[in-house]
Structures are given as C-alpha cells and as structure tokens.
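Run log // design_07
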C-alpha cells in the first residue's frame, strides 16, 4: 500500500478547505487518485472538483484519443515532474495540484 501526500493550491485549496492530505492507495495511477480517491473523500464537492480539474462534457469527464482524462489547465506534479496520468503512484510520492497560471504584465 502506497502512502501519497496530495497538496492543493489556489481554487482547489479553497474548494476543499485544506492545504494537503494523505491517501493510501494500492496500485493506483495518478488518474485513479484524481478521478476516484479524491472525489470519494470529498463527496459533497466531487462534482465541482471534476468540473474544475477536468474537461467535462454534459457532466462527464472527457477522455482523449489515448484513453486518458483531459485536464483543464491544471498542472499535476509528482516528485517535481509532470508525469502522464497513467503514472503508477509509489509510496512516498508527493502530488501537487497547481491551478492555471496567468496574469502579470511584461514591459520589455
């Protein structure tokens, strides 16, 4: 069983009301964590979670040609890298879910 720490930032931190939490997953992929484990723990916010993190069509998470869910402008980091959603989580992994980045004014 792998223990995984998940850190939330921006809108997701506000939505869930926490900065981070631990999950115990057995053979789960990153997609499993995002689509199953997190929404199950936060059931009352699961619909808004999925609509915030993923591209949805008529309330269902959109799947790309490779058969994986389509993220909606969020960056998912594991060990400081951006893995595929098919990445199999390992004991001690730290997952950071970052909101879209924007703003600023460059005057060169």
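design_07 sequence
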């Amino acid at each position: 069983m792998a223990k995984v720490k998940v850190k939330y930032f921006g809108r997701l931190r506000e939505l869930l009301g926490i900065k981070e939490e631990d999950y115990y997953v057995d053979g789960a992929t990153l997609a499993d964590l995002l689509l199953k484990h997190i929404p199950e723990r936060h059931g009352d916010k699961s619909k808004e979670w999925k609509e915030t993190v993923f591209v949805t069509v008529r309330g269902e998470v959109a799947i790309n040609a490779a058969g994986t869910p389509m993220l909606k402008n969020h960056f998912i980091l594991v060990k400081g890298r951006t893995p595929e959603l098919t990445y199999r989580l390992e004991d001690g992994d730290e997952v950071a879910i970052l909101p879209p980045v924007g703003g600023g004014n460059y005057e060169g």
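Residues 21 and 51 are 21 Å apart (CA to CA).
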